[in-house]
Specification:
Elements (H helix, E strand, L loop, with lengths): L63 E5 L6 H12 L4 E4 L4 E6 L3 H11 L8 E3 L6 H4 L5 H10 L4 E6 L6 H4 L4 E5 L4 H10 L3 E5 L11 H8 L5 E5 L9 E4 L6 E4 L5 H8 L4 E2 L1 H7 L9 E5 L3 H14 L5 E6 H4 L7 E5 L5 H15 L6 E5 L3 H4 L1 H10 L2 E3 L16 H16 L1
Parallel strand pairs: 1-8, 2-8, 4-6, 5-9, 10-11, 12-15, 12-16, 13-14, 13-15
Antiparallel strand pairs: 2-3, 3-7, 4-7, 5-6, 9-10
Helix pairs in contact: 1-6
């Protein structure tokens, strides 16, 4: 197991909305003079509320926040973020999947600080982000034909290639595996920062280890404010589903994490569908969680879903319950705990946004057991359905909690007829 899939609860998998709407109006305070139009810089002293200092404090720094509308319009801020990374600082920037936390990959001290800030143990590989596919050769020992075909088809984009690393990549980046994850992102702001940095950028999701990945600048601030040097806010939302991770260091290509680009799409380019690594699923269950409450994912046919959830509720009556269920089933549980609704939205990206933003908010509340209704992969996408299964502590099916044993019915035919008539009468009422 190479460890390439991020050990955070959502890995790279949290999504931002894809509506094109403006960013959170409360972050930074748009009423201040030096906001979007004036340069957009903020620091810790400018923002009220929590300072993102939960957990072990790495160190106190003056976290600057820049709003970048577009690279062309805000190149001065792009170049400032790039300078910070190049000189060993930490910058949170948007990608097409989630907010990333970036450091100079060729500076071991900077990468070590990235791990320290996240509370992530060393020895876990971290991907490097490059500006162009033409840079890949420099950081890998060899570039197989399969990698070239995939890069030609999918990069820039939400695909990470795991390849044998060159000697130029520090051990702290590869986690001692001598394998390196390569990303070439397509988000215009993030890509511009990487280009101007002029160095490979080691980056992972911009959140505390074991927490949900951040999808907005405000969420980055809440967890990492005062720990990192800069946060880039933007009006351009991430594209949606997490990146697919594929290991090309073995004879048969292996998917380490399903994502936006499906196995079928990859198989169409390679001529054979890659294997799905079973090692990853085992490893992903060992993640540390920021909440003592458990998350159970329900898997059942639509006709069995409500009865299954009902049986789970009956076995956990003494617990504080929360529910994330479909709109048609929400009314069944509104008196039993807080209920949030799964919304398919207009597409898979919007659905993912709704689900994981809701999960992040729910996770801040006190609960003993959160019950999530399993999603239909045909409506929500295979990657999203899969990610939900990894968030859960346990997946529950009807066979796990069967129907209570029915009382033995009387063998008196007259009694059986009476029971039937009563049932019919009740139905008519």
């Amino acid at each position: 197991m190479s460890g390439w899939a991020d050990k955070d609860l959502m890995g790279e998998g949290l999504m931002q909305n894809n509506t094109g709407q403006a960013p959170d109006a409360g972050f930074p305070d748009r009423s201040s003079a030096d906001t979007k139009a004036e340069g957009g810089e903020k620091s810790l002293d400018d923002i009220s509320g929590n300072s993102g200092t939960t957990g072990t404090k790495a160190r106190e720094v003056d976290t600057k926040i820049y709003f970048v509308d577009s690279p062309a319009r805000d190149m001065d801020k792009i170049e400032e973020a790039a300078r910070v990374i190049r000189e060993g600082g930490l910058v949170a920037f948007p990608t097409e999947t989630v907010y990333g936390l970036g450091a100079n990959a060729l500076m071991p001290s900077a990468v070590r600080r990235l791990f320290e800030v996240k509370g992530r143990p060393e020895g876990i590989p971290v991907a490097i982000h490059l500006h162009s596919v033409h840079e890949v050769d420099r950081f890998v020992k060899r570039l197989p034909d399969s990698a070239i075909r995939l890069m030609t088809q999918f990069l820039p984009g939400p695909l990470m290639l795991v390849l044998e690393s060159s000697d130029e990549v520090p051990d702290i980046v590869t986690g001692g595996t001598r394998k390196v994850g390569i990303r070439v992102i397509r988000h215009q702001v993030g890509a511009a920062i990487i280009e101007k940095a002029g160095v490979p950028v080691a980056a992972t999701s911009a959140n505390l280890s074991g927490s949900f990945s951040a999808v907005t600048a405000r969420q980055v601030w809440e967890e990492l404010g005062g720990r990192i040097d800069m946060i880039i806010e933007t009006s351009e939302p991430p594209a949606g589903i997490e990146s697919t991770i594929i290991d090309l260091t073995t004879d048969v290509a292996r998917i380490l994490r399903p994502g936006f680009i499906s196995r079928k799409e990859i198989g169409r380019i390679l001529g054979i569908e890659p294997q799905l690594s079973s090692d990853f699923w085992k490893e992903s269950r060992r993640v540390a969680r920021p909440h003592s409450g458990e998350i159970w994912l329900m898997r059942a046919e639509p006709s069995e879903m409500v009865p299954l959830i009902g049986r789970v509720v009956n076995e956990n009556k003494d617990k504080r319950l929360m529910f994330l269920v479909s709109e048609e089933n929400a009314g069944q549980f509104k008196d039993l705990g807080k209920v949030e609704i799964l919304r398919p939205g207009l597409g898979q990206n919007e659905a993912a946004t709704s689900i994981f933003t809701t999960l992040r908010e729910m996770y801040r509340e006190d609960f003993d057991l959160m019950i999530i209704e399993g999603v239909d992969s045909s409506k929500f996408g295979e990657a999203l359905a899969d990610r939900l299964s990894r968030v859960a502590n346990r997946t529950v099916t009807p066979t796990d909690i069967p129907h209570p044993a029915k009382k033995e019915e009387t063998k008196n035919p007259a009694d059986e007829e009476t029971i039937l008539l009563e049932d019919e009468e009740t139905t008519r009422d």
